[in-house]
Each structure stands twice: as structure tokens, then as C-alpha cells.
Amino acid sequence: MPTDNAVSPSEEVTPIISFSGERVAMGPLHAGLIPSIARWENDIDSLIVGGDELIVQTPERLTAIFKKIVEEERRDRVFFAIYDRVTLQPIGWCNVRDIDLFHETAELGISIALPEFRGKGYGTEAVTLLVDYAFTAFGLRNIMLDTVAFNERALASYRKVGFREIGRRRGSHRIGNRRYDQVFMDCLASEFYEVRTSHFALPEQGLAETSE
Fold first, then answer.
1. In terms of DSSP bridges, do strands 142-148 and 105-112 run parallel, antiparallel, or are they unpaired?
2. Domain-located, residue 158
3. Backbone dihedral region of 21: left (phi > 0), alpha (psi from -120 to 50 degrees) or beta?
4. pLDDT at 202
5. What is the CATH number of the domain that holds 62?
6. What's the pLDDT score for residue 204?
7. What is the pLDDT of residues 36-88, one digit of tens each?
8. How far apart are CA 186 and CA 146, in angstroms?
9. Is residue 89 part of a domain?
10. Is residue 71 in a domain?
11. Spans in the chain with pLDDT lower than 70
């Protein structure tokens, strides 16, 4: 599969990095990435893996969609670009959407667009950082996602982060004459932090005491 569809760091403004791990760095989605995203979203193999409809879209339509995402200020979703930490090469994007502050819930989506970065821990680390960020920034309790049953690599990655399967919509995803289950998973903040500390250094000084 061709992999020359990514913008190199020399071809774009040095990206803003909001936080990073060992493998990935993450920062706000920006207009300079839209041409790359338009190409990524027309890669049929990536669409199959992601469980998306296999519909080729014009660059103009995709540019309009993501231009709106970049420019529109909304409090119920946040998008991040994912970079290789060493080279700052953009390798995908992710989001937390349908953020409901009353019920403390949201949904998560991610795409590692470049195949050479799949299966090497980049996606797992990006999801871990994104979940940690969402729990911290928005005070969420539950984050949900879904994927297709044949994407065993993604399922294993989500389990490593702390997601658990909560149900399946049987045969709800069709490719040609084949049908696959849609797998729903969620992650609770209480379970997520049982096995790890937050990546973000929260201040201890001045911590308010609460009483039941």
C-alpha cells in the first residue's frame, strides 16, 4: 500500500503538541492536515479496518467536512492529530465526541492512518492518552466506542487500555455479501485508574477536603 500520502514536518507549520507519550505526540487538529486526511479517508483498506462505509469521497467534500471541524467551536467534542513523537510525522487522528457533562459520558474514535504505524503500540498509547485526557478535562465517568468484530488488533488494543465488551449488534456491518458483528465497549474512570496513574500532573497543594 502506498504510504506517501502523509505531510512531512518540513511541509507544514511545526504542530502544536498538547501532550505526548513514549511513541506518540498529540495536538489540536489543524487546517494544514486536511489534505492528508482527505487522502487517508479515501484509502479503502483503512476504511475496511475502521469499519467505515466504503464510499470514495471527493477531496472538496472531505475538505469542507474537516474545515468545519477545525473552525467550529463546540463543547461536545474535541479532535486531536496523532504524530510520531520522534519525527512529528502525522500518522492519524482521534476524537472524543458526544460529550455529555450531565451523564458524564462520551464516545471515542481513532484512526491510525499509516499502516506502518499499526500493530506497534501507537494506537494503544494514543487511546490511553486520549481517555486519560477526557476523564481529566471533562470529569467523565464512562467512555464508549465501537468497532467491527474482525478487527482483532483493535479489540486487543482497547482491552489493554481498559475497555470491556458490553455487547454486540449481530451481523450489523456488511461488506459485500458478508456480515460482521459490531462490538461495543466501554471504559470506566474508576477501573482505568485502578491500574495506572494519570499522565497529567495534577496539583496536590490546596486540595479541597470533602465530606459525605
1. parallel
2. no
3. beta
4. 84
5. 3.40.630.30
6. 84
7. 988 998 888 888 888 888 888 898 998 898 888 888 888 899 999 999 999 99
8. 9
9. yes
10. yes
11. 1-13, 210-212
The CA distance from 189 to 31, in Å, is: 32
Supply the pLDDT for residue 49.
84
- Using CA of residue 129, residue 132, residue 135, residue 136, what is the dihedral sign? negative
Q: What pTM does this model have?
A: 0.88
Residue 116 belongs to some domain of the structure: yes
Sign of the CA dihedral running 130, 133, 137, 141: positive
Q: Is 160 exposed, middle or buried (0-12, 13-18, 19+ CB in 10 A)?
A: middle
At a CB cut-off of 8 Å and minimum separation 6, what does 170 contact?
A: 181
Domain that holds residue 121: 9-138
Count of the separate structural domains present in the chain: 1
pLDDT computed for residue 41 by the predictor:
87
